[in-house]
Design brief:
This protein has four helices and 18 strands. By secondary structure, it is mostly beta strands.
Length: about 280
């Protein structure tokens, strides 16, 4: 099994940037989800409520980030002393805030008041110790550092979608970090730990999927096949700790280094049992 795709998402809920090589740190991939939009109260904003975020291309630049949307461009900088408390799900983070002119420009782009924030070196956030272990640092990702998905599971999902008369979907709908090329659908449910490029990744929690998987990742429109419906028949979690349909696994890196497209993936430890799924009558 090999790495068939690597992605970072500089702006949370913005477009993915495909990579040929990534640096891995305890908090995840270098450059992944380091920036985020929030509302006036500091609550995080994603494609779930602001679909147009899918249209934003983002690239790191010295001292900040460069954004592009429908021909409009903006380079935002950050003063480490200009900070605010922001919330991502149940996490509170003391984040750096972009300059006022940048926030005004972005508010104009989206037709609502927003601010751009940065999880810089002075900010701290940690994944759930119940799943990731103690003091496991992370960025603005939803809950964990890295998301791992497989090609065979996507192919199986698309068989289900086609059988329902729907269009197949691409892996971009799932906003993965590491795509593994493999042969057996859903075998990742049995991987407890894998190694890529000499770095161990613990697969700590399956990923429950939301309405964002129904959105085109170029336009933000809710069009095409509906992965939630395609997953419902055999990927509905039977464990109340992670409700909903499941696709992909949240992983925690247990080392640092570099991984590349084409790297071999080796399963280091297998689970004794698969994650329980509901069976439809």
């Amino acid at each position: 099994m090999k790495v068939a795709g690597l992605n970072i998402h500089p702006l949370k809920s913005g477009r993915a940037n495909a990579q040929t090589s990534v640096s891995v740190h305890p908090e995840g991939f270098a450059g992944d989800r380091r920036f985020m939009l929030v509302d006036a109260d500091g609550k995080f904003i994603t494609q779930r409520e602001l679909q147009a975020l899918a249209q934003v291309e983002a690239m790191h630049v010295s001292g900040g980030i460069h954004l592009r949307m429908n021909g409009q461009t903006l380079t935002a900088s950050f003063d480490p002393a200009n900070r605010m408390d922001v919330r991502v799900w149940s996490s509170d983070v003391d984040a750096a805030v972009a300059a006022d002119h940048a926030n005004a420009t972005l508010s104009g782009w989206f037709g609502r008041p927003v601010k751009l924030v940065h999880i810089d070196r002075a900010a701290n956030r940690f994944a759930s110790p119940e799943w990731a272990g103690p003091a496991s640092p992370m960025t603005f990702a939803d809950g964990y550092q890295v998301l791992i998905t497989t090609s065979a599971s996507l192919a199986d999902l698309n068989v289900s979608l086609i059988a329902k008369g729907q269009e197949p979907v691409g892996m971009d709908r799932f906003r993965t970090n590491i795509l593994i090329d493999n042969d057996e659908p859903w075998e990742e449910d049995l991987w407890e730990s894998v190694e890529i490029g000499g770095i161990a990744f613990d697969l700590v929690k399956p990923c429950a999927r939301c309405i964002m998987t129904t959105q085109d990742q170029v336009t933000g429109e809710r069009i095409g096949g509906n992965p939630i419906q395609g997953l419902a028949d055999k990927r509905m979690s039977a464990d109340r700790r992670v409700p909903g349909v499941l696709f992909g696994w949240n992983a925690v890196p247990r080392g640092e280094g570099t991984i590349n497209l084409g790297d071999e993936m080796r399963v280091v430890k297998m689970r004794e049992e698969r994650w329980p799924m509901k069976v439809r009558a």
